[in-house]
TrEMBL record:
Listed name of the protein: Uncharacterized protein
Amino acid sequence: MIRKVSLEEFKKNVFLFEYLKEENKTTKQVNFALDEIEKQNTIYKSEKKILLKNEGYDFIYRLFFNEIKENEDLRKNVELALRGINYDEAFILAFDDIVRQDKQILIALAKRQDYRLRFCLSEEQKKDIKLLKEIISIYPAIFLGLSTKLKENKELKSLYEEKKIEEEEKLKKFYKNFTDEHKKN
């Protein structure tokens, strides 16, 4: 069900973005703007990804890189960062390191198998074997981007090898099903 929005509410929350100072914008206003953009521009929506029409994507890009990046409070908001990742993983770059290093963000990037995950890990997190094991179990290829010292860690290496084999088996099964289905048609 689509919520009806009054013109006044829309102006107050979206059109005034241009005239408000960066520090005056609130998370509520940004979320409202994102909701409205999604309603009017969504092409595809899943748990991990939201695809938008070009105009919608342009507005969201502007919102993340012009508004959020310039607003100290918004740059530290994990929920906005998670929401931004659904549009485009690159939006994580608009947020502070503290947000990028949040475990929820790291796991979200791992689920999307995004290479930016490597750059979001702090030095302490790169030494946290438990966290690395969790990430590698979701995104095995990240192992290849770790330091030589970490690649020599037997636990991480065996987990990577195990997950790599699982991924290869999934791909073989997918290709087999795909070609079998294609032959039928």
